[in-house]
Amino acid sequence: MIKVGIVGVGFMGKMHFNTYNAYKRCKVVALADHDPRKLAGDWSTIGGNIADKRAAQVDLSGLKLYSPPAELFKDPEVDLVDITLPTFSHAKYAMAALEAGKHVICEKPMGLSLAECDRMIAAARAARRQLFIAHCIRFWPDYKVLKQIIASGRYGKVLSATFWRKSLTPTWSWDNWLLDAKRSGSAIVDLHIHDTDYINYVFGMPQAVSSSGVVGAVSKGGVDAVVTHYIYPQGPHVVAEGTWALAPGFGFTHGFCVTLEKATVEMDCRSGKPLTVHPLKGKSITPKLPKDDGYVSELKHFVDCVAKGRGSDVVTPQDARNALAVCLAEERSVKTGRVVRTR
Ligand SMILES: NC(=O)c1ccc[n+]([C@@H]2O[C@H](COP(=O)([O-])OP(=O)(O)OC[C@H]3O[C@@H](n4cnc5c(N)ncnc54)[C@H](O)[C@@H]3O)[C@@H](O)[C@H]2O)c1
Question: Among residues 62, 71, 193, 200, which is most buried (max CB within 10 A)?
């Protein structure tokens, strides 16, 4: 049984709390947050762009409740610390937990700079502990199956691929940190990184990016909307759009349309239409998807890795660093109007 301590009881902390509690190989034993209401079980102020009908008042009896995260890191019962704090705090607290001898799951994005990522990787190595970065789209059923379809070679090479992730403006975060580019890294680094990471996963890191976007429309100094062409000189042609500048009524959607030599594969979570393969010849097919959602599948995988004493073969800390490296290149491309190399 892996014993988990969650640090940061917000949108993702709550999501992870509920996910761990449904998996028999782990148990949440401790929580840390500096908001006393959260530790009293009043989770009514937690927002997010995914509807959640669960109770706003949560029974936390039996859990150890800490305010400064450092107190939780000292708890000998905790094997695995899950950092679901705002992004600007990831490096500081992930490193402290590793140095205290804990394995760490840290939400994406890994950090705000490549230097922070490098320090986190070095801290995990020095402490001989596992560090996992929660790039959940690698585990998301439709995206998992899309990768399998592409890798199978059944429909030939990918010719072109378009991905999108569009959200109402996130006004729900603690201290409004999401809309402060210095603390969240903006829509590119916070939201659109899901697609950038998946594109790296499936097609490898692009040689360069060419991006345009909208700066400072809804956030303090950040890129709020971006369209990027990921440049692969030998193909495929890959484009992704990410925005959090949409009106509240829009809600949230994500999806893709991928054209291979012998089929087109599409998914848009908003349309309610499942992942569908349209072969050049024959009828359209709707492949069976894994039943666990991306959060469940991701956290089960990380817990199993800790139980087996190994790192993840799905997402490594270096992969997470690479995702940030491409996002930072996209940001530079938006701000300079130039094509920017990714390494
Ligand atoms: N994988 C995904 O799909 C996904 C979705 C949303 C957010 N995220 C990521 O999860 C992380 C958290 O985002 P969120 O939306 O849950 O944020 P949030 O604002 O909803 O919650 C943050 C929580 O951390 C607490 N906190 C802040 N600083 C603290 C400190 N120093 N000590 C103790 N508690 C502190 C706040 O009180 C709050 O409860 C971010 O990195 C974000 O990018 C990932």
Answer: 193
Whose CA is closest to atom 4 on ligand 1? 12
* DSSP result, 98-118: HHTT-EEEEESS--SSHHHHH
- Residues near ligand 1 with C-beta < 6 Å? 8-13, 32-35, 38, 46, 69, 84-87, 89, 107-108, 134, 136, 173-174, 190
Count of positions (residues) in the chain: 343
Q: Which phi-psi region, left, alpha or beta, contains residue 214 (left: φ > 0; alpha: ψ -120 to 50)?
A: beta
Q: Residue 114: is its pLDDT beyond 80?
A: yes
Provide the residue range defining the domain that includes 234: 137-292+323-341
Any idea what the CATH number is for the domain that residue 281 is in? Answer: 3.30.360.10
Does pLDDT of 53 surpass 70? no
Angle value at C-alpha 205, between 224 and 126, nearest 5 degrees: 95
